From TrEMBL:
The entry's keywords: Flavoprotein, FMN, Oxidoreductase
InterPro entries: Aldolase_TIM, Alpha-hydoxy_acid_DH_FMN, FMN-dep_DH, FMN_HAD, FMN_hydac_DH_AS
Amino acids binding FMN: 88-90, 117, 138, 166, 259, 281, 337-338
Organism of provenance: Pikeienuella piscinae
Name listed for the protein in its UniProt record: Alpha-hydroxy-acid oxidizing protein
UniProt-annotated catalytic positions: 283
Domain FMN hydroxy acid dehydrogenase positions: 9-385
GO molecular function list: FMN binding; oxidoreductase activity
Length: 385
């Protein structure tokens, strides 16, 4: 017998990705929304992420009553209650001061991973304190060797189990929407004055919390957000290939996952140098308008390295069904970025309940598909419509 759904603690008008996005657009300043929402160029690559997942068709099966759905998975030596985690998103303090801490805390309660961005508005130490456990940590591998050594020592001391060097920003990019909106680590006084007037609730929250910074970088750059941004550009946004990852592998005895893999040949190269996992990602459509969508990238990469390394994927996820589609295409695990941060931008810390909504959608969709676990999901017929 079907049971009533246990609804997440969200206002009734926030029932979907589109609702969270629109709520964020209405609540936060234009420059902050453009940073979170935008891609690059004409946003064709961004749209392709969504469109490629929309094309995935799954044929449901029937199943006898009486066997519970098991949505848990083993990923990188950890048991996750659901097949998704929170992806790294930079400058979360622009959206709401408590976005990253609230999401990390909710993720811990839900039993799923939370990954903190190197350019987050909160330090790894702060997130560890908020969640009661260390996050996974995404970062751009810096050039100075003394900084490399310090990062690895700090992460090990904090109990970080997964490091995620990101490879798909080999240099600074020209993102038209963010340029037009005046986005920077520290927006201009004119932009701030305008948006303080237009978004008073956001302004009050931000004034109470203090100006968001980049503490994971400021540790090494000194100064404030502007100095941290310049240090990042000069020391971290550079090409990083298999040989440098091999050297990092030799220095780090925890799990190592490289983010931003789009070619099967690269996936094979990184598997050979000993990484534990890869993230199939085009950086949320923010770096190259001609990049294929995540759903298009996954099948050839899975054919090349499935079973050799863990395959994670991100980009274009709007609900639990999208998560299951990416898994059926070959991902072992899915990272979700924009959706929970839209929700926190719209609702503050309460928006972390968007993770409960995703968990609910995963389970209800598995029931609808007639699968009780992921072995059964992988047997479903899949095609591109």
């Amino acid at each position: 017998m079907a049971q009533p759904l246990e609804k997440p603690d969200l206002p009734a008008r926030f029932a979907s990705f589109a609702d969270f996005r629109e709520g964020a657009r209405r609540r936060i300043p234009h420059f902050a929304f453009e940073y979170l929402d935008g891609g690059i160029g004409r946003d064709i690559g961004l749209a392709r992420n969504y469109a490629s997942i929309d094309r995935v068709l799954l044929t449901p099966r029937t199943v006898d009553e009486g066997v519970a759905v098991d949505a848990s998975v083993e990923i990188l030596g950890e048991r996750s209650a659901y097949p998704f985690g929170v992806a790294p998103v930079g400058m979360g303090g622009l959206f709401h001061p408590e976005s990253a801490p609230a999401l990390a805390k909710k993720a811990a309660a839900l039993g799923i991973p939370f990954c903190l961005s190197f350019v987050a508005s909160h330090s790894v130490e702060t997130i560890r304190s908020a969640a009661g456990k260390a996050p996974w940590h995404q970062f751009y591998w810096p050039r100075p060797e003394d900084v490399q050594t310090d990062i690895l020592a700090r992460m090990k001391a904090l109990g970080v189990s997964v490091l995620m060097p990101t490879l798909d920003i080999p240099g600074h990019q020209w993102r038209e929407r963010t340029i037009r909106a005046g986005v920077a680590a520290k927006p201009s006084p004119l932009v701030l004055a305008r948006d303080l007037a237009l978004r008073p609730r956001w302004a009050l929250d931000t004034l109470k919390a203090g100006e968001p910074g980049l503490p994971n970088i400021s540790t090494y750059s000194g100064g404030g957000a502007a100095e941290a941004e310049m240090w990042l550009l000069q020391n971290c946004l550079r090409p990083v290939g298999p040989e440098e990852i091999r050297r990092l592998r030799d220095k780090w005895d925890g799990k190592l996952v490289v983010k931003g893999v789009m070619a099967a040949e690269d996936a094979e190269d990184f598997a050979k140098v000993g990484v534990d996992g890869i993230v199939v990602s085009n950086h949320g459509g923010r770096q190259l308008d001609a990049a294929p969508g995540t759903a298009e990238l996954l099948p050839p990469i899975a054919a090349a390295v499935k079973g050799k390394v863990a395959i994670l994927a991100d980009g274009g996820v709007t609900d639990g069904l999208d998560i299951l589609k990416l898994i059926r295409l070959g991902a072992d695990f899915v990272m979700v970025g924009r959706l929970p941060y839209y929700a926190c931008a719209a609702l503050g810390a309460r928006g972390a309940a968007s993770l409960d909504l995703l968990a609910l959608q995963v389970k209800t969709t598995m029931i609808q598909l007639g699968v009780r676990n992921f072995d059964e999901l992988m047997k479903l017929k899949v095609e591109m419509g």
